[in-house]
Amino acid sequence: MLRLDGEDWGIYFNDNADLLNPEFNPNNLDIITVPNNFRNLNKSYRGSIWIRKSFEITTEQHQKSLALQLGKVYQSDEVFVNGVLIGKNNSAFGKEPEEYAFGRPRIYPIPHDLLLEGENILIIKINSSLSTSAGIITGPIRIVTYEEAINGNLYDSLVELIFVGFYLFIALFFFINFFNLRENKEYLSFSVLALIFSGYELSKNEVRFLLLNHFAILKFIEYSFLLILPYGFIKFIQDFFELKPFKYQRIYLLSQFFFITVFIIIQNPVFWYNFIGYWDIHLLAVIGYAIYVTIIKFREQKRGSTIHLLALIYLLYSILKEILIERGYLNSASSLETSFLVYLILMTLALRFQFLMMKRKLQNRYERLKEADSLREKIFFYMDAMISGPLKSMKEKLAEYRESTQRSKDKSLVNEVIEVQASIDNVMDDIIELSRLEVLKEVPFKDQVNFISFINDVIPEDDITYSIKVHPETEIHNSLDLINSVVVRLVDFPPFKEFNHNDLIITQDLKGNVHFRFLLFHSNSKVSQRLFNELTDNYNQLTPVKVKWAIILEIVRLLGAKIDFKIIKKKYLKIDLGIAAIVPVSELQPIKDSMSAGTSNQISKKSEKEDWRVTLKRIWKFLKETEIKIPNFKKKK
C-alpha cells in the first residue's frame, strides 16, 4: 500500500490544463494538505482546481494490478497518471462518466503499462459548483491493489450496515413494546426516531447503489430522512420528559415537508446539497433545546435525565465534528453513527429502567393488594375458628331468653350474653393483630436508642421482679414499638399470672446481644406441663391463649429475634428471648490503669500472649459487676 495523503500536494487554481504540459514547472505551485476542502482556500473561485503529487513505485509494486483509491470527492473529478486520464467522476476510463457522484468514494484502476518504476505523477482536476465544498474532503488517498480497494470500501459499508442493523433492532423492539404498553408514548416516538435514522444511514451507504443505481433518487431519500430527523428527535424528548409541544412545533414540521416538496420540484442534487449545507446549522439549535430541557429536568431530579444529558453531550460533539468534516475544516473519521448508536443504547437503558421502576410500582401495588386479601382471609379464618362457638352460644342463650318467663333466670341469661360478648371483643382485637403481623414481611420502621433508657419505659411497674445485667452503653437498632410490645405481652401473658413466681433477668451474651430470661415457678407441676403442651402443640384448634402466644411468636419473627421455651425440673418454665444489640468494642476490653511507659509495654506484651479463656473470664466478670437496678418504672399501657 502506498499512502498519498499528506502535506506535499501542489495546487493550481486555473481553468487551463497547464499542469498536464510536461514543461510545466511544479515549483510554481502552492503546497497544501490533502484531504482538504479547497473552497476554504479561495471562497470566491468557481473554476477548475488542479492538484499534483509525485509518488514512487517499486519493482515489487509494479508487478501488481494497482488502483487509485480516493475518499469522498466534491463535486466532480478527472484523474491523470503521468498525463493520461484514468477516470472521471467515479467512472473508470472508457466508461460513461456519471452526472452526479459527489460525496462518493472513488476507485480508479491504473493501467499497468501507464505506471513507471520509480517516479510517477498524479494530477487530479476538481470542479465544483457546491457552495461549501470543493476537493477531496475525506480519506483514504492511496494506491493499493484493485482487490484491496474493493474490499476496503466493502468493509466500510458493512460496518455502517451493522450500525443500521442495531438501529432497526432497537426500533422494532420498542415498536413491539408500544403495542403492549400503549400509554408509553415515548416507546413509539423512540422507535420512529431510530427508524428514521436507520433509513438516513442506509440511504447514505454505498450498498444502496446495488439496489438502485440512481444517484438523484437515492440522494432525495437521504435528504428527506435528514429533514424530518430533527422533528422526530424533538418529539421523543417531549414524550420522554412528558412535555407539551412548543408553540410553533407544527409549523416547524410543516416547513420540513415544504422543503421536501421543493426538492421534488427542483430536481437538482447540487441545489439540495447547497440548501442542506446551510440548513444543518440549525441542528445545533435543536440539540441546544434538548440540552436546555434536560438540564431543567435534571434539576427536578427527573429519572433518566442524567443518562440523557450524557448522551446529548456526545451527540453534540459528533454533530459539530461532522459539520467540520463536511466543510473540510477537520480531517478526521466521522463519529456520527457511533454517537447516535450510543445515544440509542443509553436511552434504551433509560427507557427500560423506567419500565422496571413502573413494573416495580405495579408489583408493590399488587403485593399490597395481595397482603390485603391475605389479611382478610386470615381474619375470616380466625373469626370462624374463634368466634363461631361463642356466637352460637350467644344465639342459643338469646333464644332461651326469648322463651323464658322467669325474671331471675332472665337476668342470669343477660349476664351470660354480656360475658360472651366481652370475650368476643377481647379475642377480636387479638385476631386482627395476629392477622396484621402475619402478612408483614419485615419491620416497617427501625430506630436506634440506648437500651437502658428504653427499658425504663417498657417494663410494667410492679408486675414482675427483675434485674438488669447489661452494659450501660448498649444500644438496640430495631422496631422499638415491636420490642415494647413483645416484652409487655410476655410480662402480661394471662396464663403466667397463675404462677407463684415470675422472675426476669435481662443479661448480655459475649457478642453483646440482649437476652430477656423469664423463669416461672408453679408448685403444681401439672400446671406447668399443661401450659407448655398447649403452647407447643399444633394450632389446628385455636384458643384465646394460643392466639396471644402466636402474636408473640410473630413479633419475634419480625424482630429477627430468637425465643427458647422449655420446662426445667418439671416445675419451672424458662423463656429466653434474644434480641440483637450493639456494644462498643472498646467497652468489652479490660480497663487499663495509668502506668509508666516501661510497665505498659510489658503488660501489652503479656496481653498479646494471654490465653483466650482468661480473656473470656475477665469479660464475664466485668459484665457481672455491671448490674443496674431501677427502683421505679412507669407502667406503659
What does this structure look like?
This protein is an alpha+beta fold. Helix content is 52%, strand content 17%. The protein is built from 18 helices and 19 strands. It has helices spanning 59-62, 146-180, 185-204, 208-211, 215-240, 249-265, 269-279, 283-299, 305-326, 336-386, 388-403, 407-439, 451-456, 480-491, 525-536, 544-559, 597-609, 612-625; strands spanning 2-3, 6-13, 30-34, 49-57, 66-74, 76-81, 84-88, 91-92, 104-109, 118-127, 135-136, 142-145, 447-450, 465-468, 475-478, 501-508, 514-521, 562-568, 572-579. The strands form four sheets. A seven-stranded antiparallel beta sheet has the order 3-2-4-10-6-7-8. Strand 16 (501-508) and strand 17 (514-521) form a beta hairpin. It is elongated. Mean pLDDT is 80; it is low at 589-610 and 627-637.
Q: Which stretches of 5+ consecutive residues score pLDDT under 50?
A: 589-610, 627-637
Structural class: alpha+beta
Per DSSP E runs of 2 or more residues, the count of β-strands stands at 19
Mean of pLDDT: 80
Strands ordered across the widest β-sheet: 3-2-4-10-6-7-8
Kindly, what is the distance between the CA atoms of the first and last residues, rounded to a whole number of angstroms? 93 Å
As an assembly, this protein is: single chain
User: Quick one: biggest sheet?
Assistant: 7 strands, antiparallel
| Strand residue percentage | 15-25%
What would you report as the Rg, rounded to the nearest angstrom? 45 Å
State the shape: elongated
